[in-house]
Amino acid sequence: MNTIRVVQSCVILLALVACVRNRSIFDENTEFPADSVIARSDVDLAELSPEERAAILARQARDSARLDAAGFLEREATQIDAYFVTPEEIEEIKPKTISDIFRHVPVLIEKPGPPGTRLRGGQGCFITYVNGLVRRQAPSDLDTFIPVREVLAAEVYPPGQLPPAPFARASSRANCTTVGIWTRS
Predict the structure, then answer these.
(1) pLDDT tens across 26-66, in order?
(2) What whole-number distance in Å separates Cα of residue 78 and Cα of residue 76?
(3) Higher model confidence: residue 134 or residue 171?
(4) What is the chain's mean pLDDT, rounded?
């Protein structure tokens, strides 16, 4: 099932590449106010070489396969009380720090402090996993160890529930926020 999703995603992307044009979506003879024109993305797929397009598609396929192997896609489809940050959302956010990725997750709040703004979970208790392994830092402290550009996806399980595998371990506590971060490396 997930292999079909990967193939469908690649086919959709290829179709999108075939439809992209170098100019505005409006005919150049048509007059529209400047603020009504839809801005193009940072990457114009029509200007990429076939090798660059292939590299982008290959990376997306690898990312999707990695998330599938880690169980992220299955948990995203079945867990209703958790928050998932997908690769597409991370790309839209354009994070400068790992905390930027989590700013829209409602169970995480920001707490100003001496070194800067930090994320805080329910009752200040975090259990953080990176690629399925427990880390002893809050997500906002991971920037020194993990470059934000390597973060592929994330999932957050609010306090009051035990998280699913691979996060349900003896160290799991229902009163803590569980954060899972998946990286490309």
Answers:
(1) 334 444 444 433 333 456 667 888 898 888 889 899 999 99
(2) 6
(3) 134
(4) 74
Whether 59 and 87 map to the same domain: the answer is no
0.90 cut: is pTM over it? no
- In-domain check, residue 183: yes
Write out the residue range of the structural domain in which residue 22 sits. Answer: 1-27+41-69
* Enclosing H/E stretch for 34: none
Q: Which residues contact 122 (CB under 8 A, 6 or more apart)?
A: 107, 158, 159, 160, 175, 176, 177
More confident residue, 53 or 4: 53
N-term to C-term CA, the chain = 25
User: Other CB atoms closer than 10 Å to residue 154's CB: what's the count?
Assistant: 25
State the residue for tokens 């009752």: 123
CA distance 179 to 102: 10
The answer to whether residue 20 sits within a structural domain is yes
Q: How many domains does the chain have?
A: 2
Q: Is residue 32 part of a domain?
A: no
DSSP 8: H
Look at 102 and 152; give whichever has higher pLDDT: 152
DSSP for 86-131, please give it. Answer: -HHHHHHH--SSHHHHHTT-TT-EEEEETTEEEEE-GGG-EEEEET
77 lies in some domain: no
